[in-house]
Structure to design on (269 residues):
């Protein structure tokens, strides 16, 4: 089993062009992102912040650009062609600045967004969605052959991790809605290992971030009923973050960082 403890995170600051994604209050979105980054640092992570790129409105969503596990980085092939430059930036950072071994996807037909890749610490589930296809799932399996890898159909126009995410060791957080529950059934049917489930009444609460023994979830203002569930069911540290403005562009808590563990010294950007 790979550890769900992390030493580093890569994030990207929000560009002015981000406001074009939706009716976003840009300054509030920046404040929310700054609080997010600050919390990652408080939890002991070495956070590498990339500058915003005005030509890439979605560059803040770094999760989609790579899958990092066991010290290896698989560079994705995002389903949206407009995001190819984001991948080039992340590849350069992971390879040149962080000295991580890089795996490229050779199949040109493959589509893969990191937001569709759920790693449980024991195995991978890859959502087959609007942004990720079977060839993308095969690329994950090939990059990390030491772990089982199972494709899971996602019916709605959502990334897999918008519906299910890891809330702790062997604990899957899942929304109560129909689409999320259908995905959970597929995971339970195909999983190599057994997991506990934490079901939250608000689907937007299902995307959580478990970092070094702390569960990060959205604020009580956004998910009042789910916060009650977290308080009742989770017996380890919790922190809440307001993601209201970032969420207008489809962001979840996992979307804005690449987490990984490494021990060698790296250079600061």
């Amino acid at each position: 089993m790979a550890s769900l403890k992390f030493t580093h995170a890569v994030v990207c600051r929000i560009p002015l062009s981000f406001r074009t994604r939706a009716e976003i209050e840009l300054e509030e979105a920046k404040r929310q992102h700054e609080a997010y980054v600050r919390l990652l640092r408080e939890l002991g992570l070495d956070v590498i912040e990339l500058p915003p790129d005005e030509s890439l409105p979605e560059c803040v969503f770094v999760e989609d650009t790579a899958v990092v596990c066991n010290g290896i980085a698989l560079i994705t092939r995002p389903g949206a062609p407009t995001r190819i430059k984001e991948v080039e930036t992340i590849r350069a950072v992971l390879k040149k600045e962080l000295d991580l071994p890089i795996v490229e996807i050779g199949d040109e037909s493959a589509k893969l967004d990191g937001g569709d890749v759920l790693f449980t610490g024991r195995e991978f589930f890859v959502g087959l969605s609007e942004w990720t296809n079977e060839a993308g799932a095969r690329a994950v399996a090939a990059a990390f052959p030491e772990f089982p890898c199972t494709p899971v159909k996602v019916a709605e126009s959502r990334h897999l991790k918008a519906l299910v995410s890891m809330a702790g060791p062997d604990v899957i957080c899942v929304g109560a809605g129909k689409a999320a529950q259908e995905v959970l059934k597929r995971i339970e049917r195909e999983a190599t290992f057994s997991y506990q489930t934490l079901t939250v009444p608000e689907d937007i609460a299902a995307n959580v971030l478990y970092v070094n023994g702390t569960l990060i979830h959205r604020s009580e203002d956004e998910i009042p009923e789910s916060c009650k569930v977290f308080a009742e069911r989770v017996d380890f540290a919790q922190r809440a973050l307001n993601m209201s403005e970032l969420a207008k562009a489809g962001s979840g808590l996992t979307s804005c960082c690449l987490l990984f563990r490494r021990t060698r010294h790296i250079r600061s950007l």
